[in-house]
User: What shape does this take?
Amino acid sequence: MENIKIKLARVEKGLSQQDLADLVGATRQTIGLIEKGKYNPSLNLCIKIAKSLDRTLNDLFWYEDKK
Amino acid sequence: MKTKNKKPFLNMDERNKQVAFKVITIMYFLTIIAMQGIVIYRQFALGQNLSDFEDIAIIMTINSIFLISALLYFGALSIRKLKVKNILLIYLAFIILGSLFTYAKYNIFQNPGLSFEQLFDKLKIITAIIGLLMGFWILLSILGKKRIDKEIE
Assistant: This one.
């Protein structure tokens, strides 16, 4: 499932995928795949992403089940 | 909070490592299966003497023992979840498998084959070696569990 929240938060901060990747010590491809929902990051990486984007884990990674 | 990789030459993040581990695991098992195939082919199809492929057989054996040991010690496999009955069944299965291979080796692919007494002697050796191995693996499993418990504390 695509994670639009990370992409929105990243764009709001004016960061490219590469910038965010550099901040969290990952590759651009990994950030791209996380945003596309094709890679499940570890909790450590989730926290790094959330901190880099000044968001909480809930803001970026939590979603309600559609009924 | 910039956390760039300290080893830029490798520059592997967690996803890269995950992919690398998967590929390495698959390649490892393919190699082991291929080597096993070579050993069986040389032994049973070509009827070669054990000394002709002893090096491969030794590598295969040590490799398999270390693999199972590492899986148990580092907590990938947990035989503590198994009941004693199941452990005994695994032990029995190993003995049956070992006996079948021994029987095939000496009495199907070799003529004349071994007598019943000689086969029984081999069975005793197989039972003892597998028993020792199972004991070693159970010990490693217990040590591995203790290590993990210590880390948690």
DSSP finds five helices and no strands in chain A. Residues 22 and 40 of chain A are 18 Å apart (CA to CA). Helices of chain A lie at 4-12, 17-24, 28-36, 43-52, 57-61.
